[in-house]
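Chapter summary example: a protein plus beta-D-fucopyranose.
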Amino acid sequence: MPDRLDLPAGFRWGVSTAAYQIEGAVDEGGRGPSVWDVFAARPGAVRDAHTGRVACDHYHRYTEDIALMRGLGLDGYRFSIAWPRVQPTGAGPANPAGLDFYDRLVDAQLAAGITPLPTLFHWDLPQALEEEGGWLARDTAHRFADYTALVVDRLGDRVPAWITLNEPFVHMVYGYALGIHAPGRALMLDALPAAHHQLLGHGLAAAVLREHGREVMIANNLTPVWPASEADEDVAAAAAYDALHNRLFTDPLLLGSYPDLSAFGVGADLGGCVRPGDLELVAGPGLDGLGVNYYNPTRIGAPTDPGLPFAEAPIEGVPRTAFGWPVVPDGLRELLVGLRKSYGTALPPVTITENGCSVADELGPDGTVPDRPRIDYLAGHLDALAEAVAEGVDVRGYFTWSLLDNFEWAEGFTQRFGLVHVDFDTQRRTPKASYTWYRDLIVAHRTCRTR
Ligand code: FCB
C-alpha cells in the first residue's frame, strides 16, 4: 500500500488560514466593516459572543506567524485577502493601507521561501455590498471582478496562482439558506442565486487574473455522499444531495453546465438568475487547478421534512473530532477517485486546500500540547491521498487547516484546528506536537524523493 512518503517529488506542502479568522485589527488601516463584523455582533449568533475583533492579532503579528511557517519548511501558504481592507465599501479605488498590508505579507512569505497562494474571498463581504443584496445581487459578481483587478495589479507580479472563492457551497448554505453564518439570511432554496452569482464572480475574476497571466483556482468544499441504504429512495436522495453540495459548484466550472436540480423543483436557470452567456463566463477556458477542501463524507437518506428532497443520516462506528465531525480518511481517496471518474480529462490538477480537525487541545503544565488525535487524523488522510495518487489522480499539494487556532465562525474560539496553540488572552503561540510531526514529515518526504 502506498503511503504519504510515496507522494510525488515536487509535491507542495502548505497550511491554510483565512483573514477574518486570524487578522483582528478590524478598525485599523482604513478597513471597512464586513458581514462577519455585523453578524458576530448579533446576540446569539456566535458561541459565547466571540468575534473576530482581535482573533489571533495576525495583522500585527504576521512576522512571528511567518517565522512559524518557515520553521515548518513549507512550500506554500494559503491565506485570504479581506475585501473590506482593500475596498472598505466594496466599490471605488483601493485603500492604499489595505493593499500595503498584503504587500508586506507577500514579501515576508517570499523572504521565507514560501509561495503565497491567496484566496480573494473567504466569506468576509464588505457590509456595504450586503446592504445592496450581497451575493443575491448580480452586481456583486461585477464588484468582485473590480476588486480582483485592484489586488492583482498590486500583487500579481509576485503571486503566480490565485484562488477566487472559498467554499461557495458552505457560504450559500450557511450564510444565505440557513442563516447560521454571516450574513445570516435564512432563505432556504431562495438562496440559490447566491450560488450562481458567486460562480459568475469567479468567472469574471478569473478573466482578470488570466489577463495578468496568472493561474486560476477555486477552493470547493466537497464530500463523498453515501446513501443511507440501497433502497431506491435513499439512493435518489443521495444523488439529489450530491448535485447540491458537489456538482452545483463543480459541473459549471469543468463541464460548463449546471447539474439536474429537478429534485429541488429548480430548472437549469436556477430559478431565473442564469442569463444567456453566463455559463461560458463561469467556465471560461478552464481552471488551472481545483482546490479541494475535505473534512468528512456525508450520509444521506430519504427526506423526513417535506421542504427538501433529502435528510442527513448519522455515520456510526467511526471516531469523531471535537466538533463531532466523523473521521473517515479513506473518504478523501474515495472523493478524489470519484472526481477523476466523473470528470475524466476535464479534471485539472487537484490541490488539497483544506483538511484538518479540531481537538480539545490544552496547554499542559510542561508547556506542550500533545495533540495525538490531530497527528493520527493528518497521517490517515495523507496516506489516503497517496493511495488516490497511486490510483491515477493528479494531486499537486496539501495545505492543512490550519496554522493557528483561530476564530471558527459560529463556534467562536471553541474549536481549535491549529498546528500551533494560541492563548487568546496573551496571544502566545505554542507549537503543538502536530507541528513537529508535520515539519518532520515534510523533511522526510523531501529526503526520500530526492534520493
Ligand atoms: C471550512 C472553512 C474554514 C474553516 C474550516 C474548519 O469550511 O473554509 O474557514 O472554518 O472549515
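Key point: The chain has one domain: 2-450.
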